[in-house]
Each structure stands twice: as structure tokens, then as C-alpha cells.
Amino acid sequence: MAGDPVTTGSVPWRDWDNEYVWHPFAPMQSYREEKPPIIERGEGFELIDVEGNRYLDGFSSLWCNVHGHQVQAIDQAIQDQLGRVAHSTLLGHAQTRSIELAKSLVDIAPGGLRKVFYSDSGATAVEVALKIAFQYQRQRPNGSPDRDTFVCIGNSYHGDTVGSVSVGAIDLFHSVYGPLLFKTLRLPSPVAYRPPAGYSAESYLAFCEEEMIRVLKANKDRIAAVIMEPIVQGAAGILVHPPGYLRKVREWTRKLGLLLVADEVAVGFGRTGKMFACEHEEVEPDILCLGKGITGGYLPLAATLTTDEIYDAFLGHPSECRTFFHGHTYTGNALACAAAIASLDLFNTNRVLDNVTAIADVLSEQLGPIKELPRVGEVRHRGIMVGIELVADRRTKEPFDPYDRVGHAVTVAARRRGVMIRPLGDVIVLMPAPAMPPELVKRLCQVTLESIKEVTER
Known about the structure:
Elements: H1 13-20, H2 28-34, E1 39-43, E2 46-49, E3 54-57, H3 60-63, H4 72-82, H5 96-108, E4 113-119, H6 122-139, E5 149-153, H7 162-166, H8 171-174, E6 184-187, H9 201-218, E7 223-228, E8 232-233, E9 239-240, H10 245-255, E10 260-263, E11 287-290, E12 302-307, H11 308-312, H12 334-349, H13 352-371, E13 376-382, E14 385-390, H14 406-416, E15 419-420, E16 422-424, E17 427-430, H15 438-456
Parallel strand pairs: 3-15, 5-6, 5-7, 7-10, 10-11
Antiparallel strand pairs: 1-2, 2-3, 4-12, 8-9, 11-12, 13-14, 14-17, 16-17
């Protein structure tokens, strides 16, 4: 960008960024060479960099923004809370905002989820779920120490702590940490864009269901819990499960007496068209993990919800050591809880889920021309979650050489057009905020179309 290194006033932002900041999921040598925007503020659904350039926030600031930036109701809720207290511990004490939010979450969550344990990120929400499930299996009536195995889905992503990585299954992210991880059982991901040799798409999906049932039945006495992303596997490239798969997993886990953990960190709070993805198939998990959009994208907060039955297994005299020994310094932070309460209120007052339905229809219409591009292998879409897979050969589904970073090049082309999106390899992800107006969603899709054509038709 013109004028690099970027300096405003007396602050050399670009130099300081390169000197001091290590960015997540970023190949730092390339990052420094490419000189990406340095964001200073946001307004509505746009991000504004230190040079005054505006960008449509097309991936919801990593899938967490819900209502836009500088939302008056959330801003005011945080300011009001600052006039009371910014933070007080939940270790041995209570705090009004965390109590209010817990009740609000229970009121809207799938039935049976009655207890809320707070943490500070989606990964820690999953870590909490794993530890609760593991300890519950030892402390429940007729508990067993043999239940020490977790079942996950192939290509799953549940966060970056050691526990959440252990139940993840994306080799690019996770393989280097193999010696640190505990062993899991993996079910095949029920996605048939590239079925293995000898299978059609239909026969492979049937195999995935049969294998799920086989693994659960064969290991029913040693499984601590089954964990999955309901309906859509986000970080794997917006992989959409076939209708009924989630319900079938719930039926078999219930039949075999197994816990089901639903990781709705990415898919919750309207992303799939309902408040929670489990609602699409009327599934009630035993443990629910929430994060990302819980505060409207304002502050780090996460929650793990579970049933009274699970909670009761942790009750007893302190000398029995049935306590759940887990917590964070900022567990249930008052400012974050105030933001979350305000965000949930906006879901109702602004009829956000109705807007999700409207812009999901806009996406369906606007994605039509993108599907026809010769280098687009598949467009995966559920609610307002979109994955556009780019391929070198549409007929054979041959991927591009990873060295070429085609997906990344498309996002750079979009950025030149004033739209911010982020790829997952060569899958272009569109993730408009649930409250984004339809005309901005149209712009997001049009720029994506233009950017894919620019990069792939060279």
C-alpha cells in the first residue's frame, strides 16, 4: 500500500507491528512482505484502517461479529457496567451480570441444558466440556474409569488448546502436536465431494452412517463422550453434513448411554439460520459449547452448558473432592456478560434471525453465478455460512498446488475492492454478520465473484 511503512502522527504502525506482534495462523514472513491493512476502527459493517481505507467486514471479524461495529446498545451496556464494576472473580463469589446471562442462555438453549460454566474462548469452552465429561464418567452413579476415550469427526476443529486439538482432526493444524495429544476415535466426515475410490457420493454417505453406528456400538463401554460440530464443520472448509446425520448421532448416543457434546462455537447465534444449529434436527445435546458470537463480537467470553444430571455428579462434601477444579481469572467477566446480554436483546428487538433468513436467500441467489465459474469446484452453503472451493480442474476436482496460495490471492484481490474475507486454504469463506443488510451481502458476493475471476482467469 502507498506510504508504507504506515505512520500516523508519530506512530510507525507497520514497523511496530513487524517488530513486536506475532499474528495467529499467519506465515509471518509472507505476512510482513504483503503489508496487510492495519485496522484502527469500525463503523457499522465496515472496518477502517489507519490510512482511512474502508473494508466491508465479509467474515464477521473471524465469525464472531453479529450486529456490526460501534453498536450503540452494546456500547452503552459496556459503559453502564463500567460505572459499576469491570470484573470480579466467580471463584467463591457471584456477580450479577454473569447470573443474568446464565439464565438468558438457559432460556434459549436446547431443552435440558440448565447449568452454565463460563470461560473465555471457544477452545476453552471445549476444554471445559472434555474435562467435565471425563470427570463425570468417574463420579456418576455406577461410574467407570474405563470411559477414557473421546469420539470425534474427521476434519473437525474444536480449538487450539491441547485438549481441543486432541479431538480435532485437521492435519495441517494439528499433526505437529501429535506427541502431546491423547488418542481419540475418529468417525469419517459425512461429506462426499471427493468420495474415496470405490464409492459414489451416495454410498459413501451411507458408509459414514454405518461406520458411526459400528464405532459407537463397538466402544460403548469406554467412550467418555462424542463431540461434533452440528450441521456444519467450519474450519474444515464449511463442510455441510447431510440432513438427518446429527439426529442419527443423537439417537445412537442416547440409545447406548453416551454423552453428546455439541460444539456450536462457530455455528451458534444464528449462523446456520436458527439460534443454535442443533435446533434444525431437534437435537438436545448433553453438553453445549458456545463462544464467538456470544457477545456480539465485542469481548472474549465463552460458555459450556450442561444438564442437571451431569452437574449433580459434582456435588458432595468438599472432603469428597468431587469439585470441578477448573477456572479462569476472567471467568464470567462482568463487561463481557453485559455485552452478551445486550446482544441477546438485539436478537429480539431487531429480529436478527428473520434477517438471517432474508440474507441467506440473497446468498442463494448471488452464489448462482459463482457456482458456474470454471475454477469453482463446489459451493457449500448453510444459513449464512458459505464455502467456495477453488480447484485446478473442475471435472476431476484436482486441487491447486498449495504453493500457489490461490485462495489467499482471491482475498487480496477482494481487499483491493474494499472487502475483507479470509480463506481456508483454497476455500473462500463468506460469513456475513447475521444483522448485515441484504444490499451489503450482495456487494460481498459481487466482489467475491470479480476477485475469483481475476485470480483464476489469468
